[in-house]
Amino acid sequence: MTIALETRGLEKSFGGLRVTRDLSLKVEQGARHALIGPNGAGKTTVINLLTGVLKPNAGQILLEGNDITNLAVHKRVLRGLSRTFQINQLYADLTPLETIGLAVSERLGRGGDWWRRMGTRNDVNEEIAETLGRFHLLDVMNEPTATLPYGKQRLLEIAVAIATKPRVLLLDEPAAGVPESERHDILAAVAALPRDVTVLLIEHDMDLVFSFADRISVLVNGAMLVEGPPDEVARDPQVKAVYLGEAADV
Amino acid sequence: MTAVSDVSSHAIARARWRPAEIAFWVLAASCAFLFPSRYLIMTDILRLALFTLSLDLILGYAGIVSLGHAAFFGVGAYSAGLLALHGIINEPVIALVVAGLVAMVLGFLTSFLVIRGVDLTRLMVTLGIALLLEALAERFSNITGGTDGLQGIEMQPILGLFAFDMFGKTGFFYSLIVLFLLFLLARRIVNSPFGLSLRAIKNNPLRASAIGVPVNRRLIAIYTVAAFYAGIAGALFTQTTALASLDVFSFERSADLMLVLVIGGTGYLYGGLIGAVVFKMLQELFQTITPQYWLFWIGLVLVVMVLIGRERIHRWVLWGPNLIIRQVFGRKAGVAVPESDAP
């Protein structure tokens, strides 16, 4: 099995607080891997380290065997590592067409093109149309994103990430805050992600995790507690104590 | 296939010329014939409009604040002055472009300092660079003429055909054409994929980089382009007034520029042009009423404007024209001012 994404002994501290402790994680090519953990386990920090927003104090990050630890954020994206955002960080006054157009233009190397107007390149247009169609956004492509229903916005969030043609996709709580009536669309979109894209799902929602993932890593206090297939993780007494126990308390 | 053509037509529609825009430029050109005795002030407005357009490119589109934009204006002004004074380049159009390029080089070199940090740092860095250049210009008075400025600049005819006249008619048309051409270029830039990526960076730079936008490289590019524009504005100043003195670098010039852009509104290109007209008219008006205290009134207008809200004022002002435009061109043709782009 080839490894798509790997971390080796990743460390991150904020002042005296160690938020990521000796984290070694291997995500196999084409896997549906989930990273779970209680609140404050350091999941967001892991995403920020993987995407390059934060620099680790120690350790390495490898994308398809290549060291990307010191690569800038946008360069990782062009190498094939994309993410979605948990909290809504879409461009409120851009339309879905423009948002997807942005991602497609950059991927095709047309983003610095200052002379041609948007919409005059066929290769770009075709890819925008294809992506919008796949995520059921064609009918709202010209509406400002802020005016879309929340479920559509979450779909757009995934669509932007897919428009960068990632080989590894980090999904940060894709269904967070989506009303029950619109959840189905999100789950379907997540399930329909192309098989050749490796997915690392960071999630709170246990239903989604167990229906989607073929491998689960449990993060507690910034360190890896358990890793294995879903049924094994579900039976693990440590996990029950730390994670499910906490959920039962709520 | 229809989806693709939809995408294309929606994307292109943003860049389409609206009737109100055409009306704006027709009106600007017709001013030449409506007010033949006011060429000097109108030329002044055009230069300021071009200078403000430059600030709008970085502030309105990329979100870079600057309190030292006069640095590039000044460099353009002195470059054009020195080129003409020493007869290095006698043809004004070529000299204009060269002066713009000199400012552009400076813009490129200083952009690396400016893109670091956040708004407050940027204000300080841009302010510092302008002050530095002003001090340098004073120190090397053997080149710049020091506090007296460059004396005895004589401009040759434009393209060897159109001589500058004492009423400023040539200067006005020259400035208008330069402004219009550079406006067209700016319009191209903001409607391109590059322009779209700038808007994304302005809204949320982290998100932009997560989509694959090389944020710093884009900021450097637009800052450099804006420096070129400001340099051209400065060069126009020297060429149409035959003057270049230390005040081209002054802090007041940079600060006024911010006022003008705030008056006109950021992020739709016309803000700088409308702001320049309103600012100069107010200045004229208040200077005739109270020559000493006109700044007081400008300040008052600004405060009132912020309190009422620019959007509301624009709606009041555009109410009349839009009524006519809609009658002639149909319902959807009116001019809308972007709502959420207040600085």
TrEMBL record, chain A:
It holds the Pfam family ABC_tran. This is ABC transporter ATP-binding protein. InterPro entries: AAA+_ATPase, ABC_AA/LPS_Transport, ABC_transporter-like_ATP-bd, BCA_ABC_TP_C, P-loop_NTPase. One of its GO terms (cellular component) is plasma membrane. Residues 5-246 form the ABC transporter domain. Involved in beta-(1-->2)glucan export. Transmembrane domains (TMD) form a pore in the inner membrane and the ATP-binding domain (NBD) is responsible for energy generation. Keywords: ATP-binding, Nucleotide-binding, Transport. The keyword Transport applies. It comes from the Bacteria.
UniProtKB/TrEMBL annotation, chain B:
GO terms for cellular component: plasma membrane. Pfam families: BPD_transp_2. It comes from Bradyrhizobium jicamae. InterPro entries: ABC_transp_permease, LivM-like. It is a multi-pass membrane protein. Keywords: Cell membrane, Membrane, Transmembrane, Transmembrane helix. The lineage of its organism: Bacteria, Pseudomonadati, Pseudomonadota, Alphaproteobacteria, Hyphomicrobiales. The keyword Membrane applies. This is ABC transporter permease. PANTHER family: ABC TRANSPORTER ATP-BINDING PROTEIN, HIGH-AFFINITY BRANCHED-CHAIN AMINO ACID TRANSPORT SYSTEM PERMEASE.
